[in-house]
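chain below, 283 aa
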Amino acid sequence: MSTIAIANDWQQFNAISLDDLNHGSAMLTRLDNKYLVHQGVLHQALKQFSKYFDILEIDKNRLFTYESCYFDDENLRCYFDHHQGRRQRVKIRTRKYVESNLCFVEVKLKNSRGITIKKRLAYPLEQFGQLNAEALAYINEQHLELYGRDFSQGLTPTLHMRYERATLVAKQGGERITIDRQIRFNHHAQTYATNDSIAVIETKSANGNGIADRLLRTLHQHPSNKCSKYCIGMCITQQVKRYNNFMPTLRKLGALPNRVAHRSYTYAHSTPTKLFSLNDNNL
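prediction:
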């Protein structure tokens, strides 16, 4: 299916403004499910979604560019807490909303029930990719409030990421869907590109079984439980040697070594046709 066909799919939705979206539920506390879907399935899903969801539109744009810089400590505790499935875990990033020229410090935490809680602080655009004293104090405050202890890890930038996102909002209720494509991971001046025929659909609902989840099941799609873009990016950029628990997702994305007969990622820095694959020694 062509990129033009997918682009036309967004036009079947009614538009919702940012103000209207913000007046509704912000969905900062929610249960998330992530799905890896190919373009053909995405086309079918969008047709069904358009009956129940509107699409965020700003200045006649329906697709938006997100840039994120993730932070971790020298032991990569944020990564390994997620890899090991710890109930108490956190991810920290600065995020730039490119078209809107907005920037936030964002802290994602998991509570004891597995619910994702996202907190964010408006942040100077020019400080994207770094954490000042105010940001560090905010991170500690959120960690202390939920977990009852200070956040004592020293943080440094670990992974840069860029992708294109569409946001769908339920016509009734607070459910949301984000659809990410053209995902690029950057590390040490190298850019690793995901397969553009695969989209990451994330559903966000109060109980983890919303309208979108039910519609996706009718298309024989099931959640990919280990599908953190940060963690996948750490694997793909070869910053970690332990990623057993992310193997199913890496397999779906075609990022396993050649010996399992899957296609590799495209290495898209200066030679976009060169193939990049994870080394057997990293298993």
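The chain has eight helices and 13 strands. The two ends are 34 Å apart (CA to CA).
thats it, cya
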